[in-house]
């Protein structure tokens, strides 16, 4: 018996450090005194964010395939830094087709940038679909830099405010989710011998990889590792969940697992033929199995978010009923 691990389903997600966002100055409204500075590309509607930046999506262009790099460069010089911050003048600008790129001089651009900075505008976001990647080099010549990329698009940013850019970094953490499936009736735990890392959520992947259906019960533990090579040098958070099986017949995926079986939890907690994290989780499960899972579980409650109609999940140690209704306490 070698290399056993508590069944582990890993789901990778990149998370941004949200505290950085709170450092962004608030946008201050203002209306440009000159209509010439409000010219906008037909079909392109810049959007302001709550941090004082504006976003441009090239997917909104009516005929992006007909736009060459030279024209795009002229457009960036004359338009990108001249986006109107006030909604009423922005609407008027978008319907005004009487001005062209050549109508905006360098002096006007400099004046517009100065005015925008005085009004609190701090950045421009440029969203480029992968099929329009030819425009990225042109944007870079105007000072844009990469911020992040997805499978089908890249997002570039241009910092307008004084000093070093304070735009939030795109991702600082990678998150993995693992499922420890324990049969509380028999004291057996589901273990596998991996071929590859599994990268999806615990309950679904437990079924897909082992054929076992299960139910989420709690979070047991969270491991954090900085500078993880498998996460491109980002921090890695590994969340281990306690699952309870509702079926027991194993039909494992031979592409992902070499072996899969139910093993006695006490035996797994004693073996040295496993990883340190599996050994520790097995001992944690054994403690909960013998002394009560309320001693180890991190429970979940769904609560209403500040955004209407949305909810979030809050994980913490179980709160006694009398503390949930603390207003009733003496």
UniProtKB/TrEMBL annotation:
Its main location: cytoplasm. One of its GO terms (molecular function) is ADP-ribose diphosphatase activity. Keywords: Cytoplasm, Hydrolase, Mitochondrion, Nucleus. It is an enzyme of class 3 (hydrolase). Its EC number is 3.6.1.-. It comes from the Eukaryota. It is found in: Cytoplasm; Nucleus; Mitochondrion. PROSITE patterns: NUDIX. One of its GO terms (cellular component) is mitochondrion. SUPFAM superfamilies: Nudix. Residues 150-290 form the Nudix hydrolase domain. Belongs to the Nudix hydrolase family. May contribute to the regulation of cell proliferation. PANTHER family: NUCLEOSIDE DIPHOSPHATE-LINKED MOIETY X MOTIF 6, NUDIX HYDROLASE RELATED. Monomer and homodimer. This is Nucleoside diphosphate-linked moiety X motif 6. It comes from Ophiophagus hannah. The gene is NUDT6.
